[in-house]
Amino acid sequence: MxxxxxxxxxxxxxxxxxxxxxxxxxxxxxxxERISCGPCSCVGVRTSKYTNGLCGLRNLGNTCYMNxxxxxxxxxxxxxxxxxxxxxxxxxxxxGKRAPLAQSFAELIIQQQKRTRKVINPAMLKSTVAAKLPIxxxxxxxxxxxxxxxxxxSLHEELNRITGxxxxxxxxxxxxxxxxxxxxxxxxxxxxxxxxxLMEVFCGQLKSHVTCLWCGYLSKAFDPFMDLSLxxxxxxxxxxxxxxxxxxxxxxxxxFYCPECKAQVxxxxxxxxxxxxxxxxxxxxxxxxxxxxxxxxxxxxxFPGKLDLSRFTDPDNRDDLVYRLYGAVHHFGSSxxxxxxxxxxxxxxxxxxxxxxxxxxxxxxxxxxxxxxxSAYILFYKRM
Length: 384
Fold this sequence. Notes:
This protein is of the alpha+beta class. It contains 9 helices and 18 strands. The strands form 5 sheets. Strands 5, 10, 13, 14, 15, 16, 17 and 18 form an 8-stranded mixed β-sheet that branches.
């Protein structure tokens, strides 16, 4: 597996506004605290005062990829509370940003909560997205994961409470530094430029250890991620996580520059999750690209309704690592075409809540068992 296939999703440093710290300055977290940069109380909610409406989304022409992702976001309780309570308006007032995508997304949530329509037209949100990234301007089928990454990244940029410019600081290794101190140092550096509610909900921290195979020099990095792209391996999501965290060899063009050897050397890299986010998004890599063609991997991967991640994390951070599945994006068809749908719990915070399938404008009652199978493409888990 190539190194770039296992790299974490990063917030785009070059395009994220950066700046002087004001009322919403990021919290300088201690290493043993749960990741959080801002003051909003919506992050750790275990119950929600809002009941998600069961509304379909109109297909505007091959926009099932967008509708499936939006349904999962519309059933993410912390996001619903944040926008329904108007926290995005406070950030816009504080920063002076127009935030067109945030306003379009908020309007979608409001319409869903009103429940006056069985089907909502997401045309305003699509046009806002298209204005930001022209690839989404037409009506060709797009990849759901690419759309999800884009909308989360864009909402983060618009609702980033940091304004102005703070130069990016490239962190260097500190000999003998513990993982706990390194994690806190890297997170503080990230929060100096990035502080949004999207980060508080979706952002975790990935630990990378690269070891020189000549002298044994160890380089550490603690990068933020918004989702994890998992290789398909074994029969379960746990098997996929284990494969993701297996050591890999860095050779050839991927060789590591060792400051001790002062040369590009062969090395070994191991990834692990040092801190898990409040909402965990897992992307199953069902599409394999080879040369000029692509292939869909129709592998049946089981995933539990309740996922315990304690054995996949650092011993320092094993508290509260049980997650509940509340949403899934499904893809039916081949790599050359197909159809996306979503399955969601009506209330992610309520274990007794019913499951529903969302196929564009059509909504029907479903079950957790019906989410299983070869079609699952993106999974949404919330910390219990």
